[in-house]
User: What shape does this take?
Amino acid sequence: MTFERYGKRRPGGGARLRSRRGRIGQHWWSQRFVDALERTGDAGRLQRGRTYARAGQVVELRVRPGAVGARVQGSRPRPYLVEVSVRRWTASEVEAVVATVVENPLLLAPLFEGDVPPGLVDLLAGVGVDLLPVDHEVAFDCSCPDDGEPCKHAAAVVYALAEQLDAEPATTLTLRGVELADLLRRITDAASGPSDPLEDLGAHVVTFHRAAGPLPDLGVRDRVPGRTVADDLDELVLGPGAAGTADSLRPYYVALQARPGQSRA
Assistant: This one.
């Protein structure tokens, strides 16, 4: 995903952040993400990173499961390549997320709308799963010569990412290695419960028919010799003004009964 849509494109650069001063990130999830960066980063590099991000020097930002790749325009003509990696959830953590949502179905509506409800963070924390990455779960890599972590280019990427988290909260799930569509599918499957295999269903059908026993008496009258379907027609079926119609049809039904190989009426 390019970063162009998050602000006005400027010649030769990326999109400027909506935030012009002060804190970057409007919602709780983006602010927590930025807090994790600012607790460990060098103040000078962070300040330059904010300046870079606000000036539109993050020219490309692509989020994939477990990482963010970006290009950041620095002092050199060629942009620097930056990657911010986030620890992906383990299989057991994903199962815990699925179970948590199944047990709290009110979370489903916002998730289907692409939102991440704040309650999900607290519920997951209660089962030992962090939705937003903490300090040691984030790693930075940049092609610039600065060996600081994060460097100003990586810091700029995190600030740009914070605004994307505001626009697309489900990006937090992608950073944890789970796409929202896949997570919703797992939740739906878990909520529906396991289904019987095909062979088990066949066994159930056989058991059903074996246990059925004799058919009950349905009260069907034996067919009276010489009586045909025409005798069962009445005014309710034929409608008013149809007197004599049954008598006219009776010979045809009698003839059909007499033909060999035909089903009896």
Observations:
- The longest strand covers residues 58-64.
- DSSP finds eleven helices and four strands in the chain.
